[in-house]
Design goal:
Helix 3 links the parallel strand 1 and strand 2. The protein has a single domain, classed as Glucose-6-phosphate isomerase like protein, domain 1 (Rossmann fold). Helix 5 runs parallel beside helix 6. The protein starts with a helix and ends in a 5-residue tail after the last helix. The chain is an alpha/beta fold. The longest helix has 21 residues. A five-stranded parallel β-sheet has the order 2-1-3-4-5, sandwiched between helices. It is globular. The chain is 56% helix and 13% strand.
Length: 192
Amino acid sequence: MLQGKREFMVSYLEDLQQAIENIDLGVIEEVLELLAKCREEGRFIWVMGNGGSALTASHFAVDLGKGASYGRNKRFAVFSLTESVGTITAYGNDTSYNHIFVEQLKNVVKPGDVVLALSGSGNSPNVIAALEYCKQQGITAVGLTGRGGGRLAQICDVVFRANSDHMGRIEDLHMIVVHLLTYYFMEKDSGK
């Protein structure tokens, strides 16, 4: 039998609850304004991340692109750079895994667009390369990271830092932030 199951779960949830209580809603409001501006101006929102963050990026793109857009006059132009397995593996194999996001952005990103990057550590080399390119191009960058923030926190214009150093809870908080952002547009602001 597994020992300490209940104690582990209670401790994990208590730590998560404390981190949730420390979410900086001012940062979330800033991101909502950036997203609404993109929608109003017909600008693109580009999203990226690795591993679990890649899946959260995809989830965000689906919720914003479908959930907050379907049947509405004003729609979000959003794309997750994690979606193209062919493109990602071609750059990873032929050049470097560090190029998988920046090279995609070089083809499509334009002034007025917003790039949203997720990285629990804030130091994912492929995310940082893309953000550095965006900074050089004057593209607005939003970052979701962990408490330390890493290089991502230094590059991005708006940064949400999960109040945790535990990767599981950082990812939990990032999903909560994604839902705060997308469900605001689904349930409160229809953009009509």
